[in-house]
User: Fold this.
Amino acid sequence: MANVSEEVPNSVNIDLDITNKKGENLSIDDGFIWLVRSFAFLTVALLFWISWVIFDKARPAIAKFGLGFFWGKDWDVPNEIFGALPYIYGTIISSALSLLLAVPIGLAVALVTSEDFLPDWVRMPIAFVVELIAAIPSVIIGLWGIYVLIPFLTPLQDWLYNKFQVIPLFNTQASGPSMLIAGVILAIMILPTMAAISRDVLLVVPRELRTGSMALGSTRWETIFRVLLPSGASGIVGAAMLALGRALGETMAVTMVIGNSSVISSSLLDPGYSIPAVLANEFPEAASALHIGSLTYLALILFALTLAVNIGAVMLVQLLGVKKK
Assistant:
């Protein structure tokens, strides 16, 4: 019997490039391509436009204070003396504290909702409820912080002061609102971002890696810590950076629980202040050009901080991706 494959000549020239647009509907394809290109350039132009407007409005303060604005500690509105250090300090410390709390909790939620520790009818509602926190308005979380979180954490703050007052982080008596409260409430607000993205990253790790590891004798936890988490490290780092970006720019909830004190203190139990909070409190009442310029200068610093965090996240994710290859 003759071989069929030898009898049928391969006369059909198959073009494997399925993106080749030669043929029908050329004008529609080109129009759509130019449409999406214009949207992309419009988005980039919008970013530069926002940057220019913020920089232009901040120029009176930039001309007056220069780079000394960054380490100035005084904020005296009547005498028009402005310094950004207390607000930069409060923004960075509260955001870093929130990230410190949210990353392990978010990873734990992601593991519980992506592995089979629990049945599906329990895992799915947990994932849904955690993601639902992101839909709660910031001002509602701030009110919850005032009515519930501050009274709930006051005994813990008193205990930290009584037991660890030799440590500069806890060397003052808490009076209610504090940097610690702001960090906790920010951690709650960024938890859905951290948990949801990490869960999606862990779910797309190939099942062959998991089964291969366990076939070689690894336990479940060894597989999680030595295979799953390293495989999804770039995505998890990206999730943490996105969460940090949101924490840096959060306004209302932080304004309501941080205490709004421009005095720099090493103690987390003391009140603090953040850049979004001072913008929300003072911008509607600012009258002089220098005061408005100083507040806009603060906004420009916050913009640069968030931009640096996002650029750092992109570079870190790419670096981890290259190392993985």
